[in-house]
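== Item description ==
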Amino acid sequence: MNGVDYQDCDIMLNIYPDLTIAAMDPNFGSVTGSTQVRVSGMGFVSSFTYRCLFDTKFTKADFVNPNEIICDFAPVSLPGQKSFGLCFDNYNCLSREDLVLEYLETLQLLDAQSLEGPITGSTAVQVKSNHPFGNSSE
């Protein structure tokens, strides 16, 4: 209409791919917090500021690569399942209903048997704890 096909502009527009969360590993940790969790997905951008949301508590998150973020579980007062979200640039949060975290009581050693054996190893030791995933014989 006015004979101008384009015009110089000082505004830069950055277009990023959609962020997705695929999985978390591990998806359980102690009520005391500090368990490191690896969040895998796609589209993570190094220039974003990330935070992990555990139920209602935020923790710092570290960008590793476009497919991985690392963060620590937030401490909670009671064990049980809690929701998880990954937030970026302070306002946007992603979550998935099927990705929940299981907070466990602090691990306590209740009993251990066969504590002696040869220096060469191969001694079975039975350990009993309050851990809900069972006890082991290693």
Remarks:
- The two ends are 81 Å apart (CA to CA).
